[in-house]
Amino acid sequence: MQKSHVLIPASGSGSRMQASLPKQYLPLLGQAVVLRTVNLFLASPCISSVHVVLNPDDDIWATQPDLPSSERLHVHYQGGDTRSDSVLNGLSAMQSLVDEHDWVLVHDAARPMLTPHLLQRLIDAVQQDSVGGILAIPLADTLKRADREQRVQRTESRDTLWQAQTPQMFPHGLLKRALEHTRQLPDYIPTDEAQAVEALGLKPLLVQGELRNLKITYPQDLWLAEAILRADQTQGEQA
Ligand SMILES: Nc1ccn([C@@H]2O[C@H](COP(=O)(O)OP(=O)(O)OP(=O)(O)O)[C@@H](O)[C@H]2O)c(=O)n1
Ligand SMILES: C[C@](O)(CO)[C@H](O)COP(=O)(O)O
């Protein structure tokens, strides 16, 4: 039986957030974004280990007051220059603890709104697959291609277009090979794991995600996430 492990790249600077802290440490209803993300996976009995990849210079993680004390949690100060470098470094760091056929679910630290239900949907859909798969949502809006003057050049068909989310779930050995392969390609930096696997000629499965599994990128994403969590709390109180 293949085990499932989680790898959380948390080494970014959060430049688009323009905050005084990297966005993974901003408070979301009083808890650092990355800790909400980590706790979600630690709460799942399906997950054998959780690996967080931090920037080598990170001096914030260790000061967090509510760090989980689970033996399943492993912290690696081995972030790289790009997200894919951080993920590849994490895959190497966790290698001694996993089998090459074990599943690795790569999940952005900056997506703290994943739910247990959505996580289970991905695992159920992908665990019998020979390649692996990702959460994603079909494009909802009309898609415009811009010219250099920021005017509409044309309208693109949105048929068959999906927006990638995380987790992205692949066997450890396959994903490591895929990311090592893309490192050899000139000017090719995959922005998600699926893109690296695609470069091997494989076709990852698309599993229906949810809008609430948003990535905290701009300040308004944090406000939106807080509003959703407050609504969850109200609904919980009413139930
Ligand atoms: N060198 C990097 C860059 C990003 N990430 C992580 O990858 C996830 C998704 O990346 P993104 O949202 O782009 O985060 P940042 O790079 O931090 O944001 P920005 O692009 O606005 O600077 C985040 O959890 C981020 O911490 C990482 O581990 N290592
Ligand atoms: C992996 C990802 O979350 C899929 O949507 C996303 O690509 C990561 O963010 P980035 O801004 O592209 O680094």
Automatic annotation (TrEMBL):
Q: Which PROSITE patterns match?
A: ISPD
Which protein is depicted? 2-C-methyl-D-erythritol 4-phosphate cytidylyltransferase
Task: Give the function comment from the record.
Answer: Catalyzes the formation of 4-diphosphocytidyl-2-C-methyl-D-erythritol from CTP and 2-C-methyl-D-erythritol 4-phosphate (MEP).
Q: Which InterPro entries match?
A: IspD, IspD/TarI, IspD/TarI_cytidylyltransf_bact, ISPD_synthase_CS, Nucleotide-diphossugar_trans
**Where are the residues marked Transition state stabilizer as a site?**
R16, K23
Return the CDD domains for the record: CDP-ME_synthetase (cd02516)
Catalyses which reaction(s)? 2-C-methyl-D-erythritol 4-phosphate + CTP + H(+) = 4-CDP-2-C-methyl-D-erythritol + diphosphate
GO BP: any one term: isopentenyl diphosphate biosynthetic process, methylerythritol 4-phosphate pathway
Q: Where is this site: Positions MEP for the nucleophilic attack?
A: R158, K215
The record's annotation in HAMAP family points to:
IspD (MF_00108)
Q: Which family does it belong to?
A: Belongs to the IspD/TarI cytidylyltransferase family. IspD subfamily.
Gene3D superfamilies according to UniProt = Spore Coat Polysaccharide Biosynthesis Protein SpsA, Chain A
Q: Which UniProt keywords apply?
A: Isoprene biosynthesis, Nucleotidyltransferase, Transferase
The pathway is:
Isoprenoid biosynthesis; isopentenyl diphosphate biosynthesis via DXP pathway; isopentenyl diphosphate from 1-deoxy-D-xylulose 5-phosphate: step 2/6
Would I find DNA-binding among this entry's keywords? no
Recorded GO molecular functions are:
2-C-methyl-D-erythritol 4-phosphate cytidylyltransferase activity
Pfam name, any one:
IspD
Q: Which species expresses this protein natively? A: Methylovorus glucosotrophus (strain SIP3-4)
The highest taxon in the source lineage is Bacteria
The EC number on file is 2.7.7.60
